């Protein structure tokens, strides 16, 4: 059995993604900062008969994130699918003219160093398997910079560049990197951007392996 590793586990998209990939036969590794959050999510999945493990790590802490992913692979099986979708902190979203150089340190660590750390941790196992999928989830500021949320606009653009380079470089090794852009809020009543709809879209990106950038719905004008 191979593992679906989710960075940014929560009760919305994270839980829906865990259920969708578990339904396809993967064990589930949930990664977030809070042990209490992880215990609640793994217990909920266990009630549905889903094998899941929780591994505490902060994406801003390279050592803890690396250790969590190594532990996930050792405990549950090699990571075949990685989903990077932690929710940015509110203080990343300042207007551009109120954003100083130091204000970009945490957003860039969150959206560039975090994904790089995660990929470097799981890539050797994917190469041994001969296959793998790297899924990145971002808001619309990744492709349409918004001066009201400068930190995420800059950091998401950098994350997009990194993910695109992975897509181009790893394709010959049967390792697929793809990005899902979610233009609006993730809501249970949204036709295309509900947690369940997005989880299915991510699963389809994993199996379809078609192109790099996907949109849950068109960007508003």
From TrEMBL:
Signal sequence span per UniProt?
A: none
Domain of life of the native organism? Bacteria
The record's listing under InterPro entries reads: NAD(P)-bd_dom_sf (IPR036291), SDR_fam (IPR002347)
- Tell me the Gene3D superfamilies matching this sequence: NAD(P)-binding Rossmann-like Domain (3.40.50.720)
Its recorded name reads: SDR family NAD(P)-dependent oxidoreductase
Provenance organism? Streptomyces gottesmaniae
Q: What is the lineage of its organism?
A: Bacteria, Bacillati, Actinomycetota, Actinomycetes, Kitasatosporales
């Amino acid at each position: 059995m191979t593992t679906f590793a989710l960075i940014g586990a929560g009760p919305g998209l994270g839980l829906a993604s865990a259920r969708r990939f578990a339904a396809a036969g993967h064990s589930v590794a949930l990664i977030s900062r809070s042990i209490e959050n992880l215990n609640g999510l793994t217990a909920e999945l266990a009630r549905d008969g889903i094998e899941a493990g929780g591994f505490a790590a902060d994406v801003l802490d390279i050592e803890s994130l690396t250790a969590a992913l190594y532990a996930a692979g050792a405990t549950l099986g090699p990571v075949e699918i990685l989903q990077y979708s932690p929710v940015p902190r509110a203080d990343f979203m300042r207007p551009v003219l109120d954003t100083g150089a130091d204000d970009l340190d945490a957003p860039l660590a969150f959206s560039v160093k975090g994904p790089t750390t995660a990929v470097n941790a799981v890539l050797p196992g994917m190469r041994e398997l001969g296959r793998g999928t790297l899924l990145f989830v971002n808001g619309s500021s990744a492709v349409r910079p918004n001066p009201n949320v400068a930190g995420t606009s800059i950091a998401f653009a950098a994350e997009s560049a990194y993910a695109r380079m992975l897509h181009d470089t790893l394709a010959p090794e049967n390792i697929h990197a793809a990005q899902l852009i979610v233009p609006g809020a993730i809501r249970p009543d949204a036709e295309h951007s509900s947690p369940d709809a997005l989880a299915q879209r991510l699963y389809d990106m994993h199996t379809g392996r078609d192109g790099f950038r996907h949109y849950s719905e068109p960007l508003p004008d």
